[in-house]
Design a protein that fits this description.
Elements (H helix, E strand, L loop, with lengths): L19 H12 L3 H14 L3 H23 L8 H9 L1 H38 L7 H21 L1 H29 L6 H4 L6 H15 L15 H30 L13 H8 L4 H34 L18 H20 L4 H34 L4 H22 L9 H23 L1 H17 L1 H4 L3
């Protein structure tokens, strides 16, 4: 059997339709690289201060270690199940289902979080264009949020190739403006090293640890190309490359951007962690105010692409859970013409919309919503990353391919992600910052009880999942050149 996905193995999706650059675009868009300089870096600075760039460097290291373990599976098999099927392959279907539910919470939570970021920058643009001094009314903001979600749903529902191409084009467009502002800021400051940042002035291990938690949120979704296992051409090559290349691409952008933002805000009347449009401030301070509007437009575009990518990835995990019968089987259906998981796309879009809309409608700050819902999503991602790092050496040992460096990479990934997870939940933050942790615990616990009960109570279901996981594992064995 070759590496291309046969029609009966594509699960009704558009098999082998996506080129390497389109697969790469999915992972980059799901990270939403513009969201970090415009939204997340100020949050990291609030806890890590002059060590913001170092927090991102540590986060990049942690993510690259995770990518090593993800690619243990991505180089050997492919399906829409992503980390769900990887963990099921390494540790067994019951563990896979448990992580699949966490991964769905993560992707849909990411979509919900980013819709608030998208809405925030539409609000910023409206204020700039119309000279408003106050934010748009809550009802108008909910309307913006709804329009963004509907647009993402429509593209994801219609065509995976259109979705992938649009995501990549939008991200490249917006990143170009980020780089222009970063370059202008460094030039305006004389291209010299910032001693306070280089020496980590005032930074403590505790503050750096808390910064690492938020910095890892910036990378979440970098692995989402793995959800295109049935739709990518030559998936055993294109998906692993997309995973590690996207991590390096966005990681370097984050390290440089965080350094430039902290440098550019030195002495500013409004500190970095209090600014709702930091790159616009930097553009003005660097003497290039025209870039400010372009960055705002770029942020809106990038955040929309991230919503689209998150819905695309979350829908495929939901589709696979439905396909296996763990959730309602209707979720495992595909559109006869579009060859997309249309029911799962619709469900994922609705679930992503609700929490962001409720919080926005009650007048909560859009940045706060981004952080709260994003924290819930991040806990799901970290749990999945730890699980795949544990599953990888177990899987390799069973195949007789385990090497000492595999164990070292898995152990390091578990330790760094574990630090981030513990840092987010212990000690439990004071309200309202504790709500995202409690929300994840509740959502995960309820969902785990439901899917666990269905799995444990049905022998045919367990047998069907086991057979499909085995089929996924053996589908590409000839292409690997392994027995």
């Amino acid at each position: 059997m070759g590496e291309s996905v046969a029609e009966d193995e594509s699960y009704g999706l558009k098999g082998a339709a996506l080129s390497p650059i389109e697969v790469f675009g999915q992972s980059v868009a799901n990270v939403g690289p513009t969201a970090t300089p415009t939204v997340v870096i100020p949050l990291v600075f609030a806890v890590a201060g002059q060590g913001t760039w170092a927090a991102y460097l540590f986060a990049l290291t942690a993510v690259l270690l995770v990518s090593v373990n993800i690619n243990v599976f991505a180089r050997r098999s492919a399906s829409p199940g992503s980390i769900y099927t990887y963990v099921a392959t390494g540790l067994g279907p019951s563990w896979g289902i448990a992580i699949g539910w966490a991964l769905f919470i993560a992707y849909v939570g990411c979509a919900s979080s980013v819709t608030s970021g998208f809405t925030n920058y539409v609000n910023v643009l409206a204020k700039d264009i119309f000279g408003l001094t106050e934010d748009l009314p809550a009802t108008a903001l909910v309307g913006v949020l709804a329009l963004g979600t509907i647009a993402a749903w429509a593209v994801a529902y219609r065509d995976v190739r259109l979705s992938a191409r649009l995501m990549l084009a939008l991200e490249l467009f917006s990143v170009a403006f980020i780089l222009l502002v970063v370059g202008a800021t460094l030039a305006a400051n004389g291209w010299h090293l910032d001693v306070a940042q280089v020496t980590l002035d005032g930074v403590t291990p505790a503050s750096l640890r808390l910064g690492l938690v938020l910095a890892i949120f910036s990378f979440t979704g970098f692995e989402s190309a793995t959800t295109l296992g049935s739709e990518a051409a030559s998936p055993l090559r294109t998906i692993p490359r997309a995973v590690w290349r996207s991590a390096i691409f966005v990681g370097l952008l984050f390290v440089v951007s965080s350094y430039a933002e902290v440098l550019g805000f030195a002495g500013n009347e409004v500190p970095l962690d209090k600014s709702d449009a930091p790159l616009q401030v930097l553009a003005v301070r660097a003497g290039t105010p025209a870039l400010g509007i372009l960055v705002t437009i770029g942020a809106i575009i990038s955040l929309f692409a991230c919503v689209l990518a998150s819905i695309t990835a979350g829908a495929r995990v939901l589709f696979f859970l439905g396909r296996h019968g763990v959730l309602h089987t209707a979720l495992g259906g595909t559109h006869q013409v579009n060859l997309t998981p249309h029911v799962a796309v619709t469900a994922a879009s609705l679930i992503a919309f609700v929490p962001a809309a409720l919080l926005t409608g009650t007048g909560q700050n859009l940045f706060s919503i981004y952080g709260w819902v994003g924290t819930t999503a991040t806990l799901g991602f970290i749990l999945a990353y730890v699980a795949v790092a544990v599953a990888a050496p177990v899987y390799l040992h069973r195949r007789g391919e385990l090497r000492p460096w595999h164990l070292a990479a898995a152990l390091a990934a578990v330790i760094l992600q574990g630090i981030a997870f513990v840092g987010a939940v212990y000690p439990l933050p004071e309200a309202p910052d504790s709500y995202p942790v409690l929300a994840f615990a509740g959502l995960y616990g309820i969902g785990l009880a439901w899917v666990g009960l269905r799995y444990a109570s049905s022998l045919p279901l367990r047998e069907a999942i086991r057979k499909d996981i085995e089929a996924i594992s053996h589908r590409f064995k000839d292409a690997e050149g392994r027995p």
